[in-house]
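Same chain as my last thread, 122 residues:
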Amino acid sequence: MLSHLLSSKTLISLSLVLGLIYISIRARSTFMDPSEAKRLVQAGALLVDVRTPGEFNERHIKGAINLPIHQMKARLAELGEHKQHIVVYCRSGARSSRAQAMMIDAGFQHVHNLGGIGRWIR
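reply #2:
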């Protein structure tokens, strides 16, 4: 009955929104503890900011490299050994979650998602 009241475009849009909400909630539950991220970076983990160059230039965590999410696939070789620990972050955690998944799919074994840059500062 409800489907008769809603157009197929509305149902598709609603499904997409619900899917994005689910992904966002799921991603937040996988963020690593900021103190653990700092410990890993101090021990030699690569710190990767996946935001745009403009965002990176405005503010970034000291020692981070900028590897924008839209360039990730083309630049994965720059990350080095697949066994290296990598900590990724962005503004809110959405892009870093996508970057983490891409890196894991490419064979990187120790990719940790800090989430948003603000979590490091707190």
